[in-house]
Design brief:
about 325 residues, 7 strands, alpha+beta, globular, 16 helices, 5-stranded mixed β-sheet
Length: about 325
């Protein structure tokens, strides 16, 4: 309502990502109303069904847009998806737990898959039945059951091939572009393994350089390998000479905490610019190189800083999504 009231009377052109521009005030007002009601319908009806005791997967199966919203071209699920977004509403309010105590402490996928396949009569029996369902077009089910085969036996080439075929058929049928992409990515992994090239580096040098110190330390805290850091007690002071800001960092109880100002009697103190720390963290320079070039001054126990850097994980861009 606020957008229509604020901009509606004088708007003649509307343009945004994912859609072709739109001209003409009446058309734009109608578009805004139907976009508004698309999201409110998704939210309100998901919550209504939630309060009737239905879980996310059931709500996704039940919810349908009324014709006046469903047949409006910009509301079609070419990017988002009603089935997907209704589950997001459920997750927003209810979290991961669906209320069934069997799901409260369920087995992880690989352990559960081995028992599923055992109870189904073994891999060959599952594959034989799955081929019949595949031939009947029951791709949602074959994707579900063949996931168990692949997790129970990652070397099952027949299982991987039939699951990849199922994902491809689901991808071809998907109206949502992201759904299509993930189905086809799953098929690719089953046939070729996890990719090793391409992709977008989210922690790019530009991203690291743009992080203010607080955000950078939050990122380092996420990278800290908790099990490796267990039992460690490291205190560090960092003096950013370019920013004229000082911070105290503590590794204790497997956690990295930080705050403004130095820590008395810290294990190690660093004087450097933030770009120098960025370069060390990105692996573009070493601690020794930074010291020898006078870009880093270390006071106290240098090995404490070395130890801290050794506790940080490096995250790969690619990882398994449909295989264990």
């Amino acid at each position: 309502m606020g957008t229509r009231q604020t901009y509606g009377p004088n708007t003649e052109v509307k343009f945004q990502s994912h859609h072709w521009p739109m001209w003409g005030n009446p058309r734009i007002i109608d578009y805004w109303k139907k976009q508004r009601d698309l999201y409110k319908y998704t939210h309100d009806q998901s919550v209504r069904l939630m309060n009737q005791g239905f879980i996310g997967s059931e709500i996704a199966e039940m919810i349908e847009l009324p014709p006046e919203l469903d047949q409006f071209w910009p509301n079609r699920g070419y990017y988002g998806s009603l089935r997907h977004n209704s589950r997001a509403v459920y997750q927003r309010y209810m979290g991961w737990y669906d209320g069934n105590p069997s799901d409260l402490n369920d087995l992880p996928p690989q352990d559960a898959a081995k028992k599923y396949v055992e109870y189904m009569g073994g891999e060959d029996a599952v594959l034989d039945k799955a081929r019949g369902d595949f031939d009947q077009g029951n791709y949602r089910w074959t994707a579900t059951v063949l996931k168990q085969v692949v997790f129970a036996n990652p070397d099952s080439q027949n299982g991987k091939n039939l699951l990849a075929d199922s994902y491809e058929q689901l991808g071809y049928q998907a109206e949502s572009g992201p759904w299509r992409s993930i189905y086809l990515q799953g098929a690719y992994e089953l046939r070729n393994g996890v990719p090793t090239a391409g992709g977008t580096e989210t922690a790019s040098p530009d991203t690291i350089r743009a992080m203010p110190p607080d955000m950078l330390f939050d990122y380092l805290a996420v990278r800290l390998n908790g099990p490796k850091a267990a039992g460690k007690n490291i205190t560090m002071n960092i003096d950013f000479t370019d920013l004229r800001q000082q911070y105290g960092l503590t590794v204790e109880n497997g956690v990295l905490n930080y705050g403004p100002g130095p820590i008395p009697n810290a294990n190690v103190g660093l004087r450097l610019t933030k770009p120098t720390l960025d370069q060390i963290q990105l692996g573009n320079t070493t601690i020794d190189e930074a010291v020898s070039s006078n870009n880093l001054t270390i006071e106290g126990q240098r090995e404490s800083f070395n130890e801290f850097m050794g506790l940080l994980d490096t995250f790969p861009f690619w990882f398994n999504i449909v295989t264990p």
